[in-house]
């Protein structure tokens, strides 16, 4: 009987591990070479008195980050930062022993330039072997914006060709990654859960303000009402499930628990 129970426990473990990898290492990749502050003016709805009481008059500490996840021998990138000349992305990946062609999957939270700029290098795909995952809601919204707004996306789509995977929330994603609708900052802004990590994209641009006062948006949020609701929901989801939240504009150490 004891042996049977042990076998059953092992079987259950195998099933749950393959669906949701337990062994995931998340490595924040700070892309910005110089310190980043989000200016006070970005948060026009928040009163001066609040900024003063929080000591944030000079701005809110921030960053531009991508995240590398290592699991089951696969290298996964969440976003690709902005690809500016002083971008640290490739250097940090190299220091982690991950060559550009060793990135297997890239999941995009949304299509702002500071999240997709690093996908291209000298007019070609910076990650020549990676499958690139973009939520269909986000993809369609940007494609509908017209030639100028969607120029970067069109170039990326051409460069990644059949490796560009447009998905819906019903689709199963590789490595047990789960996409979560976090619409508001952009039309199809998407969070991703992998094991106990939640990659939350741009739900907060100023953690020192918005963690405690989620009702205030940065100017970058396209739909303020929806962004506020989503920010509260994602923070609640993290709390209820004991998840670690990784944000693309969180200050060091780039996550909150
Ligand atoms: Zn951003």
Describe the structure.
The protein is an alpha/beta fold and 257 residues long. It has one domain (26-256): 4-Layer Sandwich (Metallo-beta-lactamase, Chain A). 30% of the residues lie in helices and 23% in strands. It contains eight helices and 15 strands. It has helices at 2-19, 48-54, 89-95, 113-116, 136-143, 151-160, 207-210, 224-241, and strands spanning 25-30, 36-38, 60-62, 65-71, 74-78, 105-107, 120-121, 124-125, 131-135, 164-167, 178-181, 190-194, 197-201, 244-247, 255-256. The strands form four sheets. A six-stranded mixed beta sheet has the order 1-4-5-6-9-10. It has a five-stranded mixed beta sheet with strand order 11-12-13-14-15, with helices on one face. The N and C termini lie far apart (40 Å). Mean pLDDT is 91; it is low at 1-19. Zinc ion binds at residues 112, 114-115, 202, 248-249.
Gyration radius from CA atoms, angstroms: 19 Å
Q: What hetero molecules are bound to the protein chains? A: zinc ion
Which second-level CATH architecture applies?
4-Layer Sandwich
Percentage of residues in DSSP E strands: 15-25%
Order of helices and strands: HEEHEEEHEHEEEHHEEEEHHEE
Q: The biggest beta sheet, please? A: 6 strands, mixed
What is the residue-averaged pLDDT?
91
As residue ranges, the low-confidence spans are 1-19
The fourth-level CATH homologous superfamily is Ribonuclease Z/Hydroxyacylglutathione hydrolase-like
CATH class: Alpha Beta
Helix and strand content put the structural class at alpha/beta
Helix amount: 25-40%
How many structural domains does the protein architecture include? 1
Number of DSSP strands?
15
